[in-house]
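Checked the freezer inventory, then went back to the computational side. Two predictions to log before the end of the day. The first one is the construct we discussed on Monday; recording sequence and tokens without edits.
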Amino acid sequence: MNANSDIMAAYMDSIVGLLDEIRSEPREKLQEVAQLLADHIAEDKLVYLYGPGGHSNMNATEVFFRAGGLMHISAILDEGTMISNGALRSMAVERTPGYGTLVIEDNRLGEGDILILANAYGINTACIDAAEEAKRRGVTTIAVTSVGHAQATPKDHIARHPSGQNLYELCDYCLDSKVKPGDAAIHIDGIEPKMGSTSTFANAFLLNSLMMTTAAYLGEKGLEVPVWRSGNAPGGDEWNNRFIERFKGRVRWL
């Protein structure tokens, strides 16, 4: 595309097309995971969410302490792979064997816990180690990742876990984000790499859809569903303060 093209429209079409692909998937898989989360939350248990690696950290913050988000979500906001500590450092850490294992150990996850691992491509060492350690500890794991991207990535790619394993194969459940290899979607004339990433939209759509479906199942049980309201809206603080003491001390990064 060139500067006179409607790049914004093309990008929007690409994003909408990707979301339509996700939506066209059979609902049973998402509903099964949502029912699992609802049964867990009905017992007043937390659901952990970790986005191991670079921009995948945004997945954890997308539905944590967020207007419209479930209060039972406990994001693992480990500093190691945060880009705020340096982008190159983040990439090096996510490729460091054993780091994901340490994160799971540090957060003391164990038998009976549920962990959502939301990673755009599902191949890096941190996410694979985290999934394996969680499995060893008896944690139920849910992958939010791109199956196609993982399948298209060579087994000897430098970004991969040394074992060449894929996150979607290791977890008990997988919700496929459908992100295409390379992530970026739009070709600009005169520029070799594509531009316009898509994974943030896809993962946010999947995660928020999962949270709302979970809430719907909780509502069907006749249970009160603690959901965050925006502190920037009238009555937001008053609403949220009703629940703060219930979760403070339990949710590590609250």
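The second is the one RB wanted added to the comparison set:
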Amino acid sequence: MTTTTSSAPTIDVHAHVLLPEIEEAVAGHPGLAEARALDARRNGPAALAVNGPMVGARVPKLTDAAVRLTAMDAQGVDIQLVSPSPSHYHYWAEPQLAEKVCRLANEGTAAHCAQAPDRLHGLGLVPLQHPDLAVGLLDHALDQGLRGVEISSHAPSSPAIGQEGPGRELSDPAYEAFWSRAEETGALVFLHPFGCSLDERLDQWYLSNTVGQPTENAVALSHLIFSGVLDRHPGLKLIAAHGGGYLPTHIGRSDHAWRARPDARGCEREPSSYLKQLYFDSLAHDPQVLRELLRAVGPERVLLGSDFPFDMGTDDPLGALRAADLPDPDFHSVRGGNAAALLNLV
């Protein structure tokens, strides 16, 4: 069901919460130092010098529900779908610590949203590095009243837990039980990359984010499409952050490969057809790209997103949406009608 009327609430599906209890839980673990060293190599010193003060200035919006609500009012946002800061993934953590991190994330996000249950809905975490724990922790998130979970684009390898090599992609068969459970329960899965596997090639000019995030989105979505995950789980409710990255507006190359090459035939249909099984936030930073996103995936598949309150988001998500000059029904669908239907608020 899609709600297109102007009476639908304005819903931002891409907003974050910072949970200090998670950082307290991982403090002092050797794997944390290794992860931070990798993050430093990937981002470079200039980016790290900016990131700390940037996040510090936003801590009240990330932690205080009253401050969040005031900011939402100023933006004209009625409802936020709140997910943990991707810095909380800690995919280097061994099983016991990983379970603790996810439980803290689930419980902390639920407690934050409970301060304004009519305006804040939440997502939790599952540990992609331990697929055998993912189903149980998805259930834990749902038991807290959360709407689903947030995941990154892949689970990188981590020497801290004895994993070498490239890590796990979302196409890995080890995640099949997780996808099945998410589909069965109707849980939302918010795909939000953290870090980029291109590493030091992107360590200047904040390329780690500006190029890295859209690349990671495109790679992760391609794994889900070409591997047949979306064939096996057509009811999966997956939202891709950052407009899905480069993939939706460059999907023609994937379609051509599917038609031209037998080794690209892992899925049943042309890759572009699967875009209409997915959801995408509107955070494209370019009105022309946003219009093209709607053309590629359909106006019923795009949801308002701001990346609240980080600097690579937008402080005026409605203004960014208006700049795309969409037909009125499409504008209201993206503004809140689509998300209201997805969250069963209508």
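For RB: The chain has 15 helices and eleven strands. The chain has a mean pLDDT of 95. Let me know if you want it refolded.
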